[in-house]
Description:
The structure holds two protein chains of two kinds. Chain A is about 0% helix and about 55% strand. Chain A is mostly beta strands. In chain A, strand 6 and strand 7 (about 60-65) form a beta hairpin. By secondary structure, chain B is mostly beta strands. Chain B is built from no helices and eleven strands. In chain B, strand 7 (about 65-75) and strand 8 (about 75-80) form a beta hairpin. Chain B is globular, with a radius of gyration of 13 Å.
Amino acid sequence: xxxxxxxxxxxxxPEGAIVSLNCxxxxxxxxxxxxxxxxxxxxxxxxxxxYSSGNKEDGRFTAQVDKSSKYISLFIRDSQPSDSATxxxxxxxxxxxxxxxxxxxxxxxxx
Amino acid sequence: xxxxxxxxxxxxxxxxxxxxxxxxxxxxxxxxxxxYRQFPKQSLMxxxxxxxxxxxxxxxxxxxxxxxxxxxxxxxxxxxxTSAHPEDSSFYICSARPDSSGANVLTFGAGSRLxxx
Lengths: 111, 117
């Protein structure tokens, strides 16, 4: 079993749809939970991160962490074609060298 | 916010030559930087952890003599692909986090695409 599981998709939705992206993990020591967006041929861009459990909202994006279930989610409201990218979840403990990444989910938002 | 600059963004070289890729933290100091390799439609693969003033720590299966890492200052790490071969063609990405940050959250460079002919 991988430490971080993420469905690679691809996921295709119409413009304006609500998108739900998810990851599960097995290491209970993880405290930081991040979502990165990566456009083709570019480096990952940090969208948002959450420390421990709870929700965090930034514009159209909402991140949720449920540590009891070891499950994290990213919701994108009113999705736009410009949101088409690969979304990577990542998580780490307080140790500097133990960040783990999901496989990434390829999202396409069709006009 | 934290910005990581990577150069060059793309490079083409002949087989047998060496290529150097630079990773700079523009507005923060980073004792530790990370180098990743990414194949098409795959996730990031950690190659090595670059430590300022000391030797890099390589992941299992990564040849340290092939991928030379130097972290000479708190804002610069370099990855040199020595005697490059076509199988070294890939997308290389670096990342770092500010030493002053309490959060273990990484900022990535834009990546460097290496093509070895």
